[in-house]
Amino acid sequence: MKQIITFGEVLMRISPIGNKKFIQSNAVEFYFGGTELNVGISLANFGGNVKHISSISDDFIGDTAVSYLNKFDLDTSSIVRSSRPLGVYFLEVGAVMRPSSISYNRSHSSFSEIVPSMVNWEKALENGKWFHWTGITPALNNGSHQTLLEGLKLARKKGMTVSADPTYRSGLWKYGEDAKEVLSELINYSTVFIGGVNEMNELLGTTYSYSNEDFIEASKALMVKFPSIEKVFDKIRTSINSSWHKIKARMWNGLEFKETTELDITHIVDRIGTGDAFAAGIIHGLLNFNDDKAMEFGNAACAIKHTYSGDVNYANEKDVLSILEGNVTGRLNR
Amino acid sequence: MKQIITFGEVLMRISPIGNKKFIQSNAVEFYFGGTELNVGISLANFGGNVKHISSISDDFIGDTAVSYLNKFDLDTSSIVRSSRPLGVYFLEVGAVMRPSSISYNRSHSSFSEIVPSMVNWEKALENGKWFHWTGITPALNNGSHQTLLEGLKLARKKGMTVSADPTYRSGLWKYGEDAKEVLSELINYSTVFIGGVNEMNELLGTTYSYSNEDFIEASKALMVKFPSIEKVFDKIRTSINSSWHKIKARMWNGLEFKETTELDITHIVDRIGTGDAFAAGIIHGLLNFNDDKAMEFGNAACAIKHTYSGDVNYANEKDVLSILEGNVTGRLNR
Amino acid sequence: MKQIITFGEVLMRISPIGNKKFIQSNAVEFYFGGTELNVGISLANFGGNVKHISSISDDFIGDTAVSYLNKFDLDTSSIVRSSRPLGVYFLEVGAVMRPSSISYNRSHSSFSEIVPSMVNWEKALENGKWFHWTGITPALNNGSHQTLLEGLKLARKKGMTVSADPTYRSGLWKYGEDAKEVLSELINYSTVFIGGVNEMNELLGTTYSYSNEDFIEASKALMVKFPSIEKVFDKIRTSINSSWHKIKARMWNGLEFKETTELDITHIVDRIGTGDAFAAGIIHGLLNFNDDKAMEFGNAACAIKHTYSGDVNYANEKDVLSILEGNVTGRLNR
Amino acid sequence: MKQIITFGEVLMRISPIGNKKFIQSNAVEFYFGGTELNVGISLANFGGNVKHISSISDDFIGDTAVSYLNKFDLDTSSIVRSSRPLGVYFLEVGAVMRPSSISYNRSHSSFSEIVPSMVNWEKALENGKWFHWTGITPALNNGSHQTLLEGLKLARKKGMTVSADPTYRSGLWKYGEDAKEVLSELINYSTVFIGGVNEMNELLGTTYSYSNEDFIEASKALMVKFPSIEKVFDKIRTSINSSWHKIKARMWNGLEFKETTELDITHIVDRIGTGDAFAAGIIHGLLNFNDDKAMEFGNAACAIKHTYSGDVNYANEKDVLSILEGNVTGRLNR
Amino acid sequence: MKQIITFGEVLMRISPIGNKKFIQSNAVEFYFGGTELNVGISLANFGGNVKHISSISDDFIGDTAVSYLNKFDLDTSSIVRSSRPLGVYFLEVGAVMRPSSISYNRSHSSFSEIVPSMVNWEKALENGKWFHWTGITPALNNGSHQTLLEGLKLARKKGMTVSADPTYRSGLWKYGEDAKEVLSELINYSTVFIGGVNEMNELLGTTYSYSNEDFIEASKALMVKFPSIEKVFDKIRTSINSSWHKIKARMWNGLEFKETTELDITHIVDRIGTGDAFAAGIIHGLLNFNDDKAMEFGNAACAIKHTYSGDVNYANEKDVLSILEGNVTGRLNR
Amino acid sequence: MKQIITFGEVLMRISPIGNKKFIQSNAVEFYFGGTELNVGISLANFGGNVKHISSISDDFIGDTAVSYLNKFDLDTSSIVRSSRPLGVYFLEVGAVMRPSSISYNRSHSSFSEIVPSMVNWEKALENGKWFHWTGITPALNNGSHQTLLEGLKLARKKGMTVSADPTYRSGLWKYGEDAKEVLSELINYSTVFIGGVNEMNELLGTTYSYSNEDFIEASKALMVKFPSIEKVFDKIRTSINSSWHKIKARMWNGLEFKETTELDITHIVDRIGTGDAFAAGIIHGLLNFNDDKAMEFGNAACAIKHTYSGDVNYANEKDVLSILEGNVTGRLNR
After folding, report:
1. Which of B52, C183, C241, E54 could make an SS bond with B40 (beta carbons 3.0 to 4.6 A apart)?
2. Where are the transmembrane segments (chains A, B, C, D, E, F) (predicted)?
3. Position A334 in a domain
């Protein structure tokens, strides 16, 4: 079975048990995450053959991280080990009107100091069919940007599908390059755009609104500027508060616009990684179903992720399809 | 004080701490449950004198189970110990659109291999006034079916009230007998029917709807076919999702139809055992109040069980009566 | 920086982990609380310079309590240590229609046996600008009543602002004095009244309703009877159930009536200490903003406290101001 | 089966998880203990029919305590419930040269305020064969002293065996009576003395040494002064440090002296309650074996208790007999 | 890299946290184990390429088990999934003179009902170089016996090395076959014997003592009766108590006898799986070093396993080699 | 009361609960440590007035760290907050022959990027009497080296006593300076040397042995080369394995040599921070007792630290003095 490739940082996430603050209790728990890894694990849980490429510390924390990827049956054979530490982030999960808060310790991590010579892309992609990247990787450092660029070039040369989640996070991008310019170059190697009007406005320098009409116009404009892009998938989140959201998805595939009904997530457990679950759902859907069902699958995958703690979407394909079939009342599985 | 008798399997329930999945964390916790035991413990918590009869493993897990029953002051003197292991079930608690999931390891358990010669029913029932059984016990094995049948025959001979919760679970019933036939024979020894239109349709071969009119017609037909049945109690659950349900109860006692107002359970903690809490509430109500108040008590007992983790309804009589009196806003008890 | 003085009992709070009942699991956790301490810690978290005065046991539990106050940077230099044990309370947190329950073990605690000679008020207040007291302290014992009275007298003599939260809890007041009489004397040394129509009716012997009109009338009457009172702040809680409340605040400052919009707290984590968070918010607001903003700040502080477990409001000034600015949808802080 | 009666305080023990100090972590766990209760539970675990008599708080903490006694199948029917709180003690477990530390909150507890009129001794002892008391109970208060005295008088009148563990703890005895005088009167109602040379010197006003010769002389003198005493059982503990003890037992039964070999406890888990385990072992041994084997059983019971956390000796009769048979190398039980 | 094949049951192990008994606390934790799996995981931790073959339940517990094997990078591609539950065992860890206790629930598990048709041995062994089996597998059931036999025949046909750990556990072997006869047939397909004088006496019908002389004689006799056996490795455990053991190893390889010095394990954490760690150490040693160093490596691997909780030996090759080099004083690795 | 000043990095320590490895369980706990901070907290626990100076992250992790220092009543008023993350270290605690392992993530931490302009030494030391530094601080970076140097210069100018623990850790010192040269300069500003023959050989370029004679010679040579040094304190650790050490201390104060008896630490809980406990004990002893008793106090402080988990020595002065008085058998403190 051909592989889906994800490339990005593996971060250790540390959170207090029971949604407390760090000042309340010294009992904490850790998971591993990172936006591209979250997509990779979710795809493996859907049944995909996934290889994750990264640079990880060469110590017992790094060993634990690799074993975590193995646990989800990801191919870790292209992972690089270095003497730099693994990136860490601390998360305090909010509730109601209290937002969640994150503190990062990632700026000199093993992955952020990756350089192109560390990855053998020929070997890494030899069995690849799909490559997924996000805007976090080029934002970290020049080395991670260049390493990604090399990978994308080869992926396209090999005819792989490339999905881009060009998340723009202004807190990053500190190493001196221009986000818009860098992202634009990378999108030229991509075929599926997973992002919304905000990201398109950023890239296009436009001011489209959130309306469906504007979403379609923006998507068309995006495809003009970046002709490699064939499809755009977007999700719309309405937040009542930290504990209660509603989500729906929409798409423009160059031919038609579709949108899902809205799913009501009344008791959120953990919203970290829900965007990654959406991306994974879209990729899995496009690989296995049609555009329309991919959109529905992505939206349902995003929704169910809100019910798991940690970064990872533990749902398998059957779990997500069950939601698509309308099973949202939580009838017990015996 | 005369005893209420419950007869059925004691299962060890194992669940991850904090509503996680087993794949997320190896920190788990255990409780003991089982539908008839849940009814028995709830009745004891309401102040009843309850004897639970079962077969339990003769090892430290079985010792722990017996101590658990003792903890709630159940009479364990008729419990049989055998060399077969205690049944186990694993539960992952869902949230929002994610359903809870159960994995059973009970098919060759100590209880499922019970045979009539192992229970001295004369001694076990010598102080009995009420016998409660469910459709799970005859579904497990021929031995458990026959052991129950013997107990029911004696219970009726002694003039005890017999309540039946003829839950039909198709995943069980693998030992070669016909569920409808077996349940029908057992219901002939019963006087109170705790079940809904589904169960009645199953037994009658009918297709009544959920409407109150059809519920009354079904109940009447049930009483014609099973003349020992004097009263029927049903609860109606409306599920918004795994975390939010509404419940109400209704009854037909041969003379009149009554129904409760609906209780809104906006933040469910654990729904396992809520049906058992309903049954226990009905039994306690019939033993201490009138039919109407029994129905109200059963509905409130069912509702409050949703707020406790584990199989057990920890509410005492006062807690439930407080809800009947309209105290549902959660004012702090100092 | 001049100090805010809080005076009252420090209690150890013990609760089962994960909102269970004590009968369910022997894994529990402890915090320290007490209504005046909660106000003090919240004020310190807002950035205030706070001294808490109390009597605490002279053993490792007392050491742990003092270290807890130090942790929040309270001035503990006027704390008295005695051979009596620290007061303890056990809390079972409710959900939906199940109320929370408290069991106290405080009647012969270190604080309840305080007497005036144990506190050097001249030294304790030498740097004070504000004194906050509640109706719990005079309710405990004659010694705590007299000790408080001495402190209030000196505070007023020094021109400090005095805020009163005259909570009347009938389960206390067992040492033989008349609550109304005692509280009335103490209120005569107070300038800010943090309480509602119930408390005013109690003190005035009146029967005002919850309407805004009656609130204004009651406040006016209060200011007539207790001329030192300059402002009255009240909060109104609407409880859907234990897990879902709505709160708003209102005030009469002798010149104008104001009220806030209602905040909807859909998924309560812990409501203990929310009234104390309100009081702290009012005090911080009056010290730093105007009356109107103090009321808004108090209401938002009260609201966000519902999202933290334990007695303490962990929110800092920025967290609360963010809610005042309308940020209630829980957008992630990266 | 006739009952063994134990009478004494039920205390809630609270300790940090993992042998930490309270200042290190707020994750703690609770058990119930109390010297006489520990003896009772141990005897029930050995297979005895035990009734524990006490006064316990009438709240959810008291309910949890009663359920704890039920869990070990103790007869709780003579337990009194009162509005005073349950006594609490906090324990920090030491290691190596660091001693364990205890902080008590028991001075106005439910049990310490018991008075004779609260216990119906006729009914409580109607099925009794053995009564066990310790020096803690008369040390608490005049009421507990008098209540015990009444019970002892009736026990002797009914011909029950009475065992005394006259532990003298100087930190108690604060209510104004003379320990030696009070204990002497109580010992006159006792037949088995479980205590060492220290306790005998205290009662006799002598200065016997720890030598076997002096132990025999002291025992003889004791039996002269207290003619009801028929047997004396003593244990000798040699402490290397908090984690490593050696114990052996000796006895004088009026006719012969015996002593056990020394058991080496190299890795102590928890030493609280090991003296109570010794007493329970002696009582069980005297009821079921001969004097010599009772001494051996007591010593082995004491030893194995050091391997369980909490106050309770979880060993059953078979576990202790196995040690008597020389199985001390810990071969796995499959 | 050619694979080491292990074949055997995967069991879920459930133990109370903090070495308690199940009756003490409902907080437990789970791991996966099983004697052959323990060998496989240890070999993978040493750097080996290991495939484990088993039958595992087709539910979320089975998913969790497979992910556990993946976590250690075992090849799980030949694992069969069936509708029978995963075997479970409960463990209470002892201390000092208290032995550990095990309760099994494995008799109708997924693996115990395996039959030869369920494993495609040709495919499973296609990359194999070594096959390890133990006496547990043929003891479970006729199907597991026959499935193992088929695997062994093919392994030998392919020229693979076969190591046998013919542990004889009398509590198993309930399906009607003769242990000695069955094991003898299986040993005829084996080349390395990992077992001691007891196991050899069992198979030979002899009564050799534990002396080195008798060990050599027994080994020689074994090689006469089972000519395929080329080497015998044995370990000798001296138990002071449950917490303190000493171990050493010895071997006869047909040519020479060697023995190691004794390692003193003064503070045992968990002894489950230490025999499996020894077997894995021998196999790794034989694959990478010489006979003598294999024996030393096995002994050191066995020793260090006593310092990890759970069934698994987490030591890597470097950790074990460090002990061989005499680093046993625990100097901190920074 | 004049202050003791400690200056150094505050690190968050993260360790698995129950001495597991990170790969075994995701339940972990955190503390704060760092060699100089450990000394500071220990001194505060002995009753000293301690100010710790450091640079800490300006986020909720940094807030938690500051609150941790406050908890032990350290003066945190000279702590600098910066946008760089707090340093983190991961610790796996060993047992028996398995060493503990540490993984650091500190190389670009808030403290390691401190520069002299960030600390106002005049204000920081205005109330100082003693300054303690270690070799870790100058090893981190040029900025931390220079900042320390400025502080030392001022301390000496103000006549403060300066204690040096010139621990040389080769894994650090990566920023390009020569350890020996840097340390030598810093020692010229110090008066008390807390270190052994290894450290003296490093500084002197000599090869003294561990014998007492050589220790004296080395100390004399040190005082010749660094005339500001007045006293040398050393401790000698004999490791049986990770769980069992013996320690003793010795000193040369220019006039006489003294050594302590050896303390046997048979069941080590956690050895991290025991060297810091020694240093704190020496400092406290020199400030409060004479040289000889300081040495004894340091040794006992070091010993008792082995019985606490985490970096901190929780012992107070009384706890340590009790060991000096020979109380090492762990008699219970009631």
Report:
1. B52
2. none
3. no
Q: pLDDT, tens digit, for every residue of D68-88?
A: 999 999 999 999 999 999 999
Answer yes or no: is pLDDT of C169 > 90.
Answer: no
Residue with tokens 């630290």: F305
One-letter-per-residue 3-state SS of chain D: CCEEEEECCCEEEEEEHHHCCCCCCCEEEEEEECHHHHHHHHHHHCCCCEEEECEEECCHHHHHHHHHHHHCCCECCCCEEECCCCEEEEEECCECCECCEEEEECCCCCCCCCCHHHCCHHHHCCCEEEEEEECHHHHHCHHHHHHHHHHHHHHHHCCCEEEEECCCCCCCCCCCCCHHHHHHHHHCCCCEEECCHHHHHHHHCCCCCCCHHHHHHHHHHHHHHCCCCCEEEEEEEEEEECCEEEEEEEEECCCCEEECCCEEECCCCCCCCHHHHHHHHHHHHHHHCCHHHHHHHHHHHHHHHCCCCCCCCCCCHHHHHHHHCCCCCCCCEC
Answer whether D309 sits within 8 Å of E96, measured CB to CB. Answer: no
pLDDT in tens, B36-81: 999 999 999 999 999 999 999 999 999 999 999 999 999 999 999 9
- Prediction pTM value: 0.96
Q: Is B18 on the interface with D (CB under 8 A)?
A: no
Containing domain of residue C102, as a range?
3-234
Q: How far apart are the C-alpha atoms of C271 and B182, rounded to whole Å?
A: 51
The nearest CA of chain B is from the CA of F13 a distance in Å of 21
Residue A45 has pLDDT above 90, yes or no: yes
| Residue A26: CATH number of its domain | 3.40.1190.20
Give the whole-number percent of chain C exceeding pLDDT 70: 100
**d(CA D204, nearest CA chain B) in Å:** 44
Give the per-residue pLDDT at B285: 98
pLDDT at E77 over 90: yes
| Domain assignment of residue F57, yes or no | yes
CA distance B95 to F290: 65
Q: Nearest CA of chain A to the CA of D22: how many Å?
A: 12
Question: What distance, in Å, lies between the first and last C-alpha atoms of chain D?
Answer: 32
Best residue of F26, F28, F29 to probe chain B, by most B CBs closer than 10 Å: F26
Count how many domains chain F has: 1
Q: How confident is the model at residue D331 (pLDDT cuts 50, 70, 90)?
A: confident
- What is the C-alpha separation between E53 and F24, in angstroms, rounded? 23
pLDDT tens-digit series, residues C90-115: 999 999 999 999 999 998 999 999 99
Mean pLDDT (whole number) for F93-107: 94
Q: What's the CA gap between E108 and E111, in Å, rounded?
A: 8
Residue C240: closest CA among chain B residues belongs to which residue? B329
F63 contacts A23? CB cut-off 8 A: yes
Question: For residue A171, what pLDDT is reported?
Answer: 82
Question: Tokens for E204?
Answer: 């030979």
E97 closest CB neighbour out of D330, D333, D334: D330
Contact of B26 with chain A, judged by CB distance below 8 Å, is answered with: no
**Nearest residue to B303 via CA among C101, C96, A330:** C96
Strand partners, B32: B12
Give D23's contacts in chain C (Cβ within 8 Å): 60, 63-64, 67
Residue C41 tokens read as 């810690």
Report which of A240, A236, A238, A237 is spatially closest to residue A97, judged by C-alpha positions: A240
Evaluate whether residue B70 is within a structural domain.
yes
Summarize the confidence of residues F164-181 as an average pLDDT.
90
The reported pLDDT for the residue numbered E1 is 76
Q: Does C99 touch chain B (CB under 8 A)?
A: yes
Cβ(B79)–Cβ(B66) below 8 Å = yes
CA distance B72 to chain D (A): 6
Say if B73 is an interface residue toward chain D (CB within 8 Å): yes
Q: Is residue D334 part of a domain?
A: no
